[in-house]
Amino acid sequence: MRTRIEVEHANCTFCVDAVRTELLARPLVRRVEMSVTAGCLEVDHDHDDPAELIELLRRSLHGSQVADNGEVVMITIDPVITHDCSMHLPHKHRP
Asked: Residue 71's domain spans which residues?
């Protein structure tokens, strides 16, 4: 089974690496691919509960943004299961 999850604003590199490792440690997960720029995560798994995957992402995956006072702060993200996210960005045309 393949589950695609939108993870918009998940730009914390440390968090992304840690979540990928945590997902791959699950016995039913076979493959994890994530594109921070596309805001998309794909998980290939054998009957793992997608709701558990979402909860793991809510708990462990974060983003960062600049607050009104100029300080960089961590933000929570709201991962959602989707069919529309794409791991690939459009190709740039070469001159």
From this structure: 2-81
